[in-house]
Design brief:
Strand content: over 45%
Strand order of the largest sheet: 1-5-4-3-2-6-7-8
Distance between the termini: 36 Å
Number of strands: 8
C-alpha cells in the first residue's frame, strides 16, 4: 500500500563515521540490519526533473521493491519534500517488469545508485528520528537523519533533526541527492 507524506531529512558527509556512531550509541540509538539498496533513477519523457527538483526511482532492498516519487524541496535548510512510495511485487523478475513498464511509458533510465545502508532510530525531543549510515558507491559515506510526517508536524520534525545534528556536531548539510553526487563524480 502506498503512502504520501512529507520527508524531513538532512544528510551529512562522514569522512570518518566511527565517532558519530559512538555518539549515537551513547544517546540510545537502536540499529537494524545492514541492507544493500539499488535505486534506478528515471527521467520523465517531457518534464526535466533536474530543473523541477523532482525524482522518480525504482528501489530494491534485497527482494523488496517500490516506486518512489519525490517532489521539490520545500525549504532551504533541510531536504523536506513530498514523498509518495508504492510497493510492488518482490523479486528481480517483478523489478524488471516494472522497469519495462515505465520505459514503455517513455521514461528513460538516468543512473543506478548503489549503497550499503545501516538503518536505525533514535528518540530525540520526543520524536523518533530514522537514522541511515550510508556507504554510497562513487559518492562516499553519509549520515541521514529523517522523519516522515504530516505537514502540520513539519516544524517540530525539522527542529528535532536540527537539534540532533547540532548535538552530534555534524558539518554542513549536503542538500544534493546521491544521484547528483554520483553523476558529478
Amino acid at each position: 500500500m502506498g503512502t504520501s507524506t512529507l520527508e524531513v531529512e538532512m544528510k551529512f558527509p562522514l569522512p570518518d563515521g566511527e565517532w558519530v556512531l559512538r555518539l549515537l550509541n551513547e544517546r540510545g540509538a537502536i540499529w537494524r540490519e545492514l541492507l544493500e539498496q539499488i535505486d534506478e533513477y528515471l527521467a520523465h519523457p517531457v518534464r526535466d526533473f533536474a530543473r523541477t527538483d523532482e525524482a522518480f526511482r525504482i528501489r530494491s532492498v534485497g527482494i523488496e521493491n517500490c516506486l518512489t516519487y519525490k517532489g521539490p524541496k520545500l525549504d532551504a535548510e533541510t531536504k523536506t519534500r513530498r514523498e509518495i512510495e508504492v510497493t510492488f511485487a518482490t523479486g528481480n523478475e517483478a523489478r524488471e517488469q516494472m522497469r519495462e513498464l515505465v520505459l514503455a511509458l517513455g521514461f528513460k533510465s538516468v543512473a543506478c545508485v548503489r549503497k550499503e545502508r545501516q538503518t536505525g532510530n533514535i528518540s530525540w525531543l520526543g520524536l523518533e528520528i530514522e537514522l541511515a549510515l550510508d556507504q554510497v558507491e562513487g559518492a562516499g559515506n553519509f549520515l541521514e537523519l529523517e522523519i516522515c510526517t504530516a505537514a502540520e508536524h513539519m516544524p517540530a520534525a525539522k527542529a528535532a533533526i536540527l537539534d540532533l545534528a547540532a548535538e552530534l556536531q555534524l558539518g554542513p548539510c549536503e542538500r544534493r541527492s546521491y544521484l547528483e553526487l554520483c553523476l558529478q563524480h
